[in-house]
Amino acid sequence: xxxxxxxxxxxxxxxxxxxxxxxxxxxxxxxxxxxxxxxxxxxxxxxxxxxxxxxxxxxxxxxxxxxxxxxxxxxxxxxxxxxxxxxxxxxxxxxxxxxxxxxxxxxxxxxxxxxxxxxxxxxxxxxxxxxxxxxxxxxxxxxxxxxxxxxxxxxxxxxxxxxxxxxxxxxxxxxxxxxxxxxxxxxxxxxxxxxxxxxxxxxxxxxxxxxxxxxxxxxxxxxxxxxxxxxxxxxxxxxxxxxxxxxxxxxxxxxxxxxxxxxxxxxxxxxxxxxxxxxxxxxxxxxxxxxxxxxxxxxxxxxxxxxxxxxxxxxxxxxxxxxxxxxxxxxxxxxxxxxxxxxxxxxxxxxxxxxxxxxxxxxxxxxxxxxxxxxxxxxxxxxxxxxxxxxxxxxxxxxxxxxxxxxxxxxxxxxxxxxxxxxxxxxxxxxxxxxxxxxxxxxxxxxxxxx
Length: 451
Hints:
By secondary structure, the protein is an all-alpha fold. The chain has helices spanning 5-11, 17-48, 54-66, 70-80, 83-107, 112-144, 150-175, 181-203, 225-234, 236-253, 259-267, 271-300, 306-331, 337-363, 371-404, 407-432, 435-440, 443-450. The protein folds into two domains: 14-205, Growth Hormone, Chain: A (Up-down Bundle); 220-451, Growth Hormone, Chain: A (Up-down Bundle), CATH 1.20.1250.20.
């Protein structure tokens, strides 16, 4: 017997804006906790404890490497039909990892070996928590948001994540005055408790509101993990999108660890001034996200491939911003560095939100695979690219400074490589974010379209 028509139609209504904001609160909680581990603890290790910068950098890279497990966690949330449990569980693991990482940092002076062992374990928990909770949250968003709202939903959730990072950084900074190691542990515990509680409240009875916008059977059982990966690998659009994510995120992250040193070495900016420059970059990202969220949503309902234009445009604008930074590296003052960095951030924000919107569209495009495992595959690609990109940027500048004997030329070379990577990403996006897969949602038809 067929199900009644009315419930089926109601099921397809999916998330309203309040539900999207609630998922954004989860993203904000993840961003706040990760900020403490990757920013505050990083600074304490390098400045207060006078350790090599490679030590916290290696721990951050390790937490990205652990996120290779994202496909497994996403598949598990598909099989269990309970993404809320994975979201809350992931945040709890992340919070525990942050607390253990803080404790490990406090132990470094007294017992370096034991502290490093604890830190490695703690950052593994951080990576696992981000991977499990973040992948499940994105999968829930992808399954519950109507196609015409995907760009706006991506903009809302990612803007809230950035806002969560900024708000928690300001709050934690104030609470750590005057600084002491005991105060750091208390603040970390308070942040962990508040963020887990926020996640529980944000996801309370949320999953039952999700609709389904897949073309395939909505309630068909998820395939086993190997079969799911095989389907994704043999689907041309999914495979191309994975490569696109990897290349674009390497380009996106290469500047992370070198932008402030660049401002100090070439333009003579103080630490406070270079931090403000980072704020201008984040301001550009936020504006790009908002513009893309509004503009992308206006056209996606009419053209399924409309987001492709925004992805390509964001990549090319980012490439232009990096090419201009290359010129700034050999010219120095009075180059308008703040405007340059803002434009770079604008391109980054446009690209990021449009790519995430396209990702949500492709997440439901499998014949049997569900959103969790597909988001997991792309999340793993993104995590590895982030870790590798930051490392390549920093090591590339060090190597170029030694080989060229000139700081400006070294930064120019690295910025040029980043710009070229964004141009390559734009070329990959032409096919990877096309409208055929977004419109039809079936892997076999998609393969015929791109064969």
